[in-house]
Write a structure and sequence with these properties.
Shape: rod-shaped
CATH topology of one domain: Serine Threonine Protein Phosphatase 5, Tetratricopeptide repeat
Oligomer: single chain
CATH architecture of one domain: Alpha Horseshoe
Largest sheet: 2 strands, antiparallel
Number of strands: 4
Strand order of the largest sheet: 1-2
CATH class of one domain: Mainly Alpha
Distance between the termini: 141 Å
Helix content: over 70%
Strand content: under 5%
CATH superfamily of one domain: GLE1-like
Structural class: mainly alpha
Number of helices: 24
Amino acid sequence: MPSEGRCWETLQALRSSDKGRLCYYRDWLLRGEDVLEECMSLPKLSSYSGWVVEHVLPHMQENQPLSETLPSSASASALDQPSFVPKSPDTSSTFSPASPATPDGTKGKDESQHTESMVLQSSRGIKVEGCIRMYELAHRMKGAEGLRQWQEEQDRKVRALSEMASEQLKRFDEWKELKQHKEYQDLREVMEKSSREALGHQEKLKAEHRHRAKILNLKLREAEQQRVKQAELERLRKEEGQVRLRALYALQEEMLQLSQQLDASEQHKGLLKVDLAAFQTRGNQLCSLISGIIRASSESGYPTAESQAEAERALQEMRDLLMNLGQEITRACEDKRRQDEEEAQVKLQEAQMQQGPEAHKEPPATSQGPGGKQNEDLQVKVQDITMQWYQQLQDASMQCMLTFEGLTNSKDSQAKKIKMDLQKAATIPVSQISTIAGSKLKEIFDKIHSLLSGKPVQSGGRSVSVTLNPQGLDFVQYKLAEKFVKQGEEEVASHHEAAFPIAVVASGIWELHPRVGDLILAHLHKKCPYSVPFYPTFKEGMALEDYQRMLGYQVKDSKVEQQDNFLKRMSGMIRLYAAIIQLRWPYGNRQEIHPHGLNHGWRWLAQILNMEPLSDVTATLLFDFLEVCGNALMKQYQVQFWKMLILIKEDYFPRIEAITSSGQMGSFIRLKQFLEKCLQHKDIPVPKGFLTSSFWRS
């Protein structure tokens, strides 16, 4: 500060003055000098004056504005106060920095007593001494305060240094911990890296292991599949071998049956113009051939497809042989029957010539005379040869049904499944026959033919074959024939045009599989005995319902069906039969004759005209038969057929009319109008729905 600078300058000036150079001794009183002399001497500054000037005067100047008289009064009061006067020698010596050292204690004690007495003697000296001591006290207090502050400062510094050291220790610990943590992290990263590398290597090894395991599994699976495939092929080969073996046994059984039928034809030996022994010899050779095939197959394990095919060819040759023999027998029987008819006709004409012209003018006779006796011209019973034929067909049907009885009555689920599949495969194609297109009809025919030939066919999404069961072929043949007749009973009865597509398929199957044709006739004769023709007679003790069933009626819960429905069903079956005898499968062998051709239609027509008519039934069946088959019979027999129609008009119409009541005249009038129209135009129209060449091109 400026004031401090001036104070120092003042002090420097005072020191340089004369008085400033004076020496002051505190112990002047001890030397015994006179006070006055002392007062007269030059003043000297105390050694503490500098401190007073430096520390006290600035404070006095600062406090000057507050009280100008304060220093003087303070000095006076300080001097007057005895508290500032030291009373203790220790205190006195303490506050005397300049006191010389005393050699002993006695001298010091005397000096202090002397000094005290000297101080008390001079008030000015007391004041000065008080000031000096006050200054010393203040100096000591300030020094103590400074020391205290210094100590506090040092304590603070020590604390600060301690705190700083503590903080540095903490930082060091933290740094050390951080370093350890970092080292731990580095070590952890290294370990994790090595672990990842190990895991990667392990995953790589696992992947390689999985890949190798996959390859091994694939190889094992392929080997297993190959083994299973080989086992399956072996199983299939064994199954096919067993199926072929069963098929061979079935073929042998059928061959033996055909051989028996061939032997049974011995009774017609007198009628035949060919050598029967040649047929029998060839039949025996074919039987021996199949036996040899079965014997060779049993020795080698299982038969091959070639062996089965060879056996089938042998069986087919046997069928053809028997069919040719049957045709020869049929032709011989037909020739004999025609010869007998011609002889009977000649005899009848001779008898009529002998009776004279009056016999032609007589009215037509009724079925019974006045006495109730049957007219001698017509008969009720069928001819014996026809009845034998009818009975043979029924026996063959019964024998066929007994053959597959084990299959139908089997409790085995597999056998039941085979039975259902075979039945569907046989009946569903027949239900699909329609007049849509010839190509569709050919597909159905091929499917039925393949099934009967032992080839597998698709039915309901599964492969079906008659070789799955030894009785499969008999079952399929029986069900197929039954379905054909049922179609005539239901479909043809409702839609007359349906008779022709059903009949052409049945005719083609009949030609390739004669046994199916025999079963068709058996089912047809059983459901419609008028197709024989055969009028069942009521026997004593027979139930009325059984007799009605024999007549063709359906009896359910003791209720007989209505006459209209009965006639409708009979009409459908006769129409189917009339269509079968005139149609042939267009893709078959044209060189062979029809297995059941128009000659059987001529026989049926002749026999039904030789029997007494039945009310409502005969007229209906004659109309249906002539409408379907009349055109074909006209082309085949020409003049003879027209003679037959004239005979019906002139001789048979009166008989039908005589037994027909007024409520049943519809069928008779319809037949009469149809016949009169045909005779008038000298032509019988082609039946509606007849299959033309354009149908087969569609």
